[in-house]
Design goal:
By secondary structure, the chain is mostly helical. The chain has 2 domains: 196 residues, Orthogonal Bundle (Clc chloride channel), CATH 1.10.3080.10; 196 residues, Clc chloride channel (Orthogonal Bundle). Helix content is 78%, strand content 0%. The chain contains 17 helices and no strands. The termini are far apart.
């Protein structure tokens, strides 16, 4: 017994507490977390301002004409910022991955302020974009700024950026586990004991600051949501296949429209960027329910308050709007639109089962919650992060097995089908 105790003490002394790594994680978590919190406050205020202006636009022609001029000015200003710093386009995660892989070198200060401003302007204009991608890039750029001031070893630069990205995600969504998973799965950081401490501390610190500012309630609360059927596992597999098809369609359309946008001259890109701003206004005039922000739409879809035809219309409008906004390259996140569209798909799937098969109506809510994780995995191919972020946002930990099944099915079913198709083609050629 004494030998085992002495052996344990020797192991503890052999691997001392990484004080430097802990201080690094705490410092990055504070700076990047506060920046992500500030960005969240600003875009929430911009979203509230947009929805506060909309009723006046509909009832008064003068305000309608004035808002058209404002929207045109917003698109011109955002296009100007994108010409000033091309690396602020899109969500920002792809640019961060290129930085981590050494394919590009981002100017941290220029990217930071221009991405912040452009993201807020896009939300104020009504674009269907989120806050996670920009928060990840902003957190990483803040960490890069700290790294340039501290001037530590070159091989530590990647760890600083990843810690900032994890803190940005945790601060934006209040999801510390998702920040850690994203660091390893989304940014392809090799997990080691040396980098786990600073990444975990930076994510947890940003989460603590976020909870201090916004409170300790999750974005949604589905802890009391009951599972209506023991056969739901099979439905999750079918739902995962449906989400995989929608994910393939969205990625294909986004690639096509994004490529079309990328081939335009700079002068025409401004015109194309005006389209999503104008589309946001038209959606409000023609289908006001679809102009709600992502949180309200998810709550409406998950509570089963809409008819089946209304759910299908809502899904079609938000799907098209998401594709247009994302493919335009406007500075803004893609994760929240993905979660919103996923909730609409699950709600439509559940409403169809209720309408045609007489299933329990609670199935609409359950499937819409599960679909958020599945569609995240279908579009981004990051099932672990999708499961973690959905579980932390909804507090529905009892649905964790269902999250895993639908996420893995949605993420890997297309890959398996592609391999099977290639195998069949090769056999026929033989």
């Amino acid at each position: 017994m004494e030998s085992e105790s002495s052996h344990t003490q020797q192991n503890i002394l052999r691997f001392p507490l990484p004080v430097h790594s802990a201080a690094q994680g705490l410092g990055i978590g504070v700076v990047s977390g506060l920046l992500a919190i500030l960005y969240r406050i600003c875009i929430d205020s911009a979203d509230q301002a947009f929805h506060g202006i909309l009723p006046h636009i509909k009832s008064r022609p003068f305000f309608f004409a004035l808002w058209l001029l404002i929207v045109l000015g917003l698109s011109l200003l955002v296009a100007r910022l994108m010409r000033l710093e091309p690396m602020i386009s899109g969500g920002g995660i792809a640019q961060l991955q290129n930085e981590l892989e050494g394919q590009t070198k981002l100017s941290w200060l220029t990217v930071l302020w221009s991405k912040f401003l452009a993201g807020v302007l896009c939300i104020f204009g009504g674009l269907f974009l989120g806050r996670v991608g920009p928060s990840v890039l902003l957190g990483a750029m803040a960490a890069k700024g700290m790294y340039s001031l501290v001037k530590t070893a070159d091989h530590q630069k990647k760890l600083w950026l990843v810690c900032g990205a994890a803190a940005g995600l945790a601060g934006a969504f209040g999801a510390p586990v998702s920040g850690i998973f994203f660091a390893y799965e989304g940014l392809r950081m090799k997990p080691t004991r040396a980098n786990l401490v600073p990444i975990a501390l930076s994510s947890t610190t940003a989460f603590a600051l976020s909870r201090f500012v916004f409170g300790y309630q999750t974005l949604f609360d589905f802890r009391s949501l009951r599972i209506p059927s023991p056969h739901l596992l099979w439905l999750c597999a079918l739902l995962g296949l449906a989400l995989a098809l929608f994910g393939l369609l969205q990625n294909k359309l986004t690639t096509l429209l994004g490529g079309f946008f990328g081939r335009m001259k700079a002068s025409f890109r401004t015109v194309f960027l005006f389209i999503p701003f104008l589309l946001a206004l038209l959606i409000f005039l023609l289908f006001p329910a679809a102009s709600q922000n992502g949180i309200d739409i998810i709550q409406t879809a998950e509570q089963g308050q809409l008819l089946f035809s209304s759910i299908l219309l809502l899904l079609a409008v938000k799907f098209v709007f998401a594709v247009v906004c994302i493919s335009s390259g406007a500075p803004g996140g893609t994760i929240f639109p993905i979660l919103t569209v996923g909730a609409c798909i699950g709600s439509a799937f559940g409403a169809a089962l209720v309408l045609f098969l007489g299933a329990d109506s609670v199935l609409i809510c359950v499937l819409s919650v599960i679909s958020m994780a599945g569609y995240f995995s279908a579009v981004l191919r990051k099932p672990l992060t999708g499961v973690a972020i959905t579980a932390e946002l909804t507090a529905a930990l009892h649905l964790l097995p269902l999250f895993i099944i639908v996420s893995l099915t949605a993420a890997y079913a297309p890959l398996l089908l592609a391999r099977m198709r290639g195998h069949i083609v090769r056999n026929r050629l033989r």
